[in-house]
Write a structure and sequence with these properties.
MetI-like fold, 13 helices, elongated, ABC transmembrane type-1 domain-containing protein, MetI-like_sf, membrane, transport, cell membrane
Amino acid sequence: MQPRTSPLREFIKHFRRNRLGVMGLYGILALLLLAVLAPIISDRPSGYGDVTNMLQPPSAEYWFGTDSVGLSIFDQVIWGTRVSLYVGLTSAVISILIGVPIGLISGYYGGRVSNIGMAITDIFLTLPVLPLMIIMAAVLGTGISNIAIIIGLFSWPQIARVTRAETLAIREKQYIEAARAIGTKESKIIYRHVLLNAFPPILVNMTILMGTSVLSEAGLSFLGLGDPMSWSWGTILQNAHATGVIIHAWWLALFPSVAIVVLVLSFNFLGIGINEALNPRLRKR
């Protein structure tokens, strides 16, 4: 009789077979490494750069070219990695802290509790998110932490719906009924049995949410609602658009846009890999 493989080793084995998932993981690790090593790789952009080399195309001296005040686009993109990862992680954590409890309680108890929880969720799903984000950013301020909080406050409904759907299926399992029969506290059943088994789809949606959060931050920054004191990829695009040189200086839009695409695709590919590794039905395809 062969020894039983641990769930973690089983997950790693199947995840490694998914090329998209591995690509996504390597992409995120590479960007995370750039964010951590940003002070070593490049100088933090500030003030005016080399005014004698304004709007220079990519060259050996300026790999990504320079902007209208002579600042290196390469430096801006490297430091923008920190902002994008921070926004993606912070907004995802906020969404989970709000959406998971609502989904768990709604799915486990059902009835009126479920109706109230899903009514609140549906209200948030029908709200015009972008205009409300713009209003809240204008009211609360354009600090990068405020932007991350705002995005998180409007991103939790999808997590709540996924959590509720999984909870509805799990609460009917025999081991849940057995836990109730032996007198296990409901709070322990919810967080130890239901949540742990519902965690895989929550994790998959978290990766997708982090990608969409990066896009939301880039959109708000492009509209001029980003943090002017910190460099983000959306801020680079907004500065190029505001100065009117984005049409002629193609490198101002190309490199931050490529960075956004790489990060968003990396999160989505990672989610695909995790989903296939955790879902036995997808492995058989």
